[in-house]
Amino acid sequence: MKHRLVTRSDFDGLVCAVLLRKLDLIDDIFFVHPKDVQDGVVDIGPNDILTNLPYVAEAHLVFDHHHSESERVGHANANHVLIPEAASAARVVYEYYSNRDGYPPLRVSDELMAAVDQADSAQYELEDILHPEGWTLLNFLMDSRTGLGRFREFRVSNYQLMMELIDHCIEHQDVDDILALPDVAERVALFREHEPRFIDQLQRCSRVVDDVVIVDLRDEDVIYAGNRFMVYALNPQTRVSIHVMWGRERRNSVLAVGKSIVDRTSPVDIGSIMLTQGGGGHVAAGTCQVEHADLERVLDRVIAEVATPRPTDTRRAA
Length: 318
What we know:
Diaminopimelate Epimerase, Chain A, domain 1; 13 helices; alpha/beta
């Protein structure tokens, strides 16, 4: 019996799909938002395999690496494969099936697995942020937070492209072949075109509190597409970012919090902090959705909890 894969529409979800397709375990793929899974909006049943999503007891198997899930769920479950130290959900899937009898060898390139681990754990250097190429560029193009989907009617939708990329990643070992595909190349062109306006917008909409940079995009008519790590390259003195954005259909607001990948010395556990606000995540990144009336209060609290003065920083004590 084959299963339905339910996952996020990102690079990690893509590689999870590639692995499970190679194992011939899935015949359907459904891309979802994690909040919809957590709120029970998505109907999950015993035929479903979930990756990189909140745990649902009714699922056949749930693969994850978000440590906040162990806190939220509270106990171990036989169908919950949770490895918090794994760099990606795809790595959890890979390790699980590589060590089990009855499954064929997982023949996937080391380069692809290294790329998804690097992408989902954000292990990028400054040069990768400023001048992305190869798998790094493909990851940024697929990341919904890059925002390419807000612009231009592409020849195929993002969903169609994700489905096509699953096949392409199985067929092609060279990422340059994938980037040269017409439906990918047109997104590369738009990404490059937006970059200078995206950088200008980040600089206009940012303020810094202690070691935290807050980027409030709610008053922007157009939010330009760009690499979500650029804010750290532009504010290397900070260690945490908070993006404030409208939620779906402006029904609420979203706080997207992340640790800098330029200065990785922040000691805070962002996933646990987001969990207290009804969201989740892992040590280095997390999100929560907030009602409009509560936004300023919640934002102030989150800033206070994630900001940590450096040992030589006496500004808070003054």
